[in-house]
């Protein structure tokens, strides 16, 4: 069998057909999307040459090929990891069956190192106040609380829902000092309430 080559216009080079997909998220670097260059030839590529869309497996392969995360990763590497993680999450949101178990036990999520000794697991600060209170005290995944809300399908699939600080942290309130009653403010409050009821 001969090696089939396709000219990839965006990269101005010939690539192997087995490295091509019809559509792919822009974050993928190891496959070549053909839809933008050959939109009028969709039937040829999709039907005759069996070129499919990228899959979650392509994204997982790329994130695993990056190796383990490091606290000293440059910002560009962290950004790329996050982009790939969001691509996996988007595919999970579409209920696409996935080999997500390939990520089990792998160190692929960017994290913020705590100032204390490193714990053997990560926490997920899913609320702003928890992020502010625990940043630098626990090892947290490097996503903001707003990003965490968007990542719910992935967090559930990889079992990090049990690490949500909103589920793990038990808040207690205690009063310090001696309680005193401010009679002047109490009377002002009663007067205002009286006006509201009229």
Structure, described:
It contains 8 helices and 6 strands, in the order ββββαααβαβαααα. It has 198 residues and is mostly helical. It has a two-stranded antiparallel ribbon with strand order 1-2. Strands 3-4 form a two-stranded parallel sheet. Strands 5-6 form a two-stranded antiparallel ribbon. It starts with a strand and ends with a helix. The model has no long low-confidence stretch (mean pLDDT 86).
Provide a brief overview of the structure:
This protein is mainly alpha-helical.
Main sheet makeup: 2 strands, antiparallel
Secondary-structure content class: mainly alpha
Order of helices and strands: EEEEHHHEHEHHHH
Gap from first CA to last CA: 92 Å
> What does the radius of gyration come to?
26 Å
Q: Within the largest sheet, what's the order of strands? A: 1-2
Strand content: 5-15%
Instruction: Characterize the overall form.
Output: elongated
Mean pLDDT: 86
Q: How many alpha or pi helices?
A: 8
Overall structural domain count: 2
Record field, number of beta strands:
6
DSSP helix fraction: 25-40%
Layout of helices and strands:
Blueprint: E1 5-8, E2 13-16, E3 20-21, E4 32-33, H1 42-48, H2 56-65, H3 75-93, E5 111-112, H4 128-134, E6 140-141, H5 145-150, H6 152-157, H7 165-168, H8 183-197
Parallel strand pairs: 3-4
Antiparallel strand pairs: 1-2, 5-6
Helix pairs in contact: 2-3
Features:
single chain; 198 residues; mainly alpha; 2 domains; two-stranded antiparallel sheet; two-stranded parallel sheet; 8 helices; 6 strands; elongated
